[in-house]
Write a structure and sequence with these properties.
Layout: E1 28-35, E2 44-47, E3 60-63, H1 65-75, H2 77-80, E4 84-91, E5 95-102, H3 110-121, H4 140-155, E6 169-172, H5 176-188, H6 197-200
Antiparallel strand pairs: 1-5, 1-6, 2-3, 4-5
Helix pairs in contact: 1-4
């Protein structure tokens, strides 16, 4: 699937620094990375074409059957979460990179509005349905829990020992330059695999 980052650049204006209190249900693009447990390379291999015994300039990402499932369910995310749009993404041998855009009509403030109304009518956040109100949980974590769970369920049918790393890494994309830079990074990830932090074992993310 071809993505067009220019379609979304300039739409989001994130000027605040990263805060622990950031609402991950707010409209914004997020750069997400999910790793396999112990970074086991089970999603496939980066193969190099070496014509004339030269160094490959066009490495190819060859996905395994479970790598294909990881790709399939990533692209399926908007079908389960209408408030999500996807930017560029790539399934690497032991991790998945992707841009997830929360794009709610109300700007992502629906949860706050629910809580304000709830305090006027009931002591239970979320109104009549309480904490079970789905609008309170339309956020990045919910999307990633669904994705990791769906992939795990299907992958274990093929590879019973498959597992994800317990957490995922995220970065709020705050401006157009960052969006474009991260998009290029994702596209070029297979070509740069040998120097990737997830290949070398030097994890610089939280």
């Amino acid at each position: 699937m071809e993505h067009h980052p220019n379609k979304y650049m300039g739409k989001y204006r994130i000027t605040s620094t990263r805060l622990q209190t950031w609402d991950y249900g707010s409209n914004a693009p997020y750069f997400v990375t999910i790793c396999t447990h112990n970074r086991v390379c089970c999603f496939g291999n980066i193969t190099a074409e070496t014509p004339n015994r030269g160094v490959s300039a066009n490495p190819t990402n060859q996905l395994s059957p479970i790598g294909q499932l990881a790709r399939q369910f990533w692209l399926d995310i908007p079908n389960h979460f209408p408030f999500v749009k996807l930017g560029e993404s790539v399934v690497m041998p032991n991790h998945v990179h992707g841009i997830v855009m929360i794009d709610k009509p109300d700007g992502g403030n629906g949860g706050d509005a629910i809580n304000r109304v709830s305090k006027q009518k009931t002591s239970t956040p979320g109104g009549i349905t309480g904490q079970h109100n789905p609008m309170l949980y339309e956020n990045l974590s919910r999307v990633m829990r669904w994705y990791k769970g769906r992939v795990s369920f299907e992958c274990k049918k093929i590879a019973p020992h498959f597992a994800w790393q317990s957490r995922f890494h995220d970065h709020i994309i705050r401006n157009d330059d960052s969006f474009e830079r991260i998009t290029r990074y994702i596209i070029n990830n297979p070509k740069n695999w040998r120097g990737d932090i997830f290949h070398s074992g030097d994890d610089e993310t939280r």
